[in-house]
Amino acid sequence: MDILDRLGSSLPRWDVAPGDLEFFTDGGPVAFWERLRAMLRGARRRISLATLYWGTDAREAQLLGDMRHALEASPELTVRVVVDYSRGRRKTPNGNTVSFLRDLARAFPGRVDLYLHRMPQFDGAAAWLPSPLDECVAVFHFKAIVADDEAII
To answer: Is residue 71 within 8 Å of residue 112, measured between CB atoms?
Structure first.
């Protein structure tokens, strides 16, 4: 048994039939953006996002509005957002990820959670680096979006 077989039999996984996969090949970023917005607006049970950071400009405000719409339409909907600890706290002219998402979490207590993932490399002296120098050590740079039973990775 080779290493891939061992990993496949011992680690968590999702079995997905090839016909259930969809690749974004047409429409470019505009098609991706529209699909993402539709997923968020249409979610009824869960939205989970993992990303380096959440921007604070108009496009990200649209996504925030889409999630707010879904939360208002579906009382059972929960939202979980995971962002990098360092990048999520970096200041911009419009605030930062935490300040941008705070109002949504306050408007829907117990239904919206924001998590800051701190990379293990920050144990010790690296923890004292100021922003944005701390991002040179390590960042959680992952992109995954789940809305109900749809996922974009």
So the answer is: yes
pLDDT of residue 113: 94
Residue with tokens 């979490």: 105
The single residue listed with the structure tokens 């974004």 is 24
Instruction: Give strand pairing partners of 95.
Output: 92
Cβ proximity of 113 and 80 under 8 Å:
yes
3-class secondary structure for the chain? CCHHHHHHHHCCCCCCCHHHCCCCCCCHHHHHHHHHHHHHHHCCCEEEEEECCCCCCHHHHHHHHHHHHHHHHCCCCEEEEEEEHHHHCCCECCECHHHHHHHHHHHCCCCEEEEEECCHHHCHHHHHCCCCHHHHCCCCCCCEEEECCEEEC
Q: Which amino acid is at 107?
A: A
Q: What is the pLDDT of residue 6?
A: 78
Phi and psi at 123, nearest 5°, equal: -70, 135
Which regions in the chain score pLDDT beneath 70? 1, 13, 87, 119-140
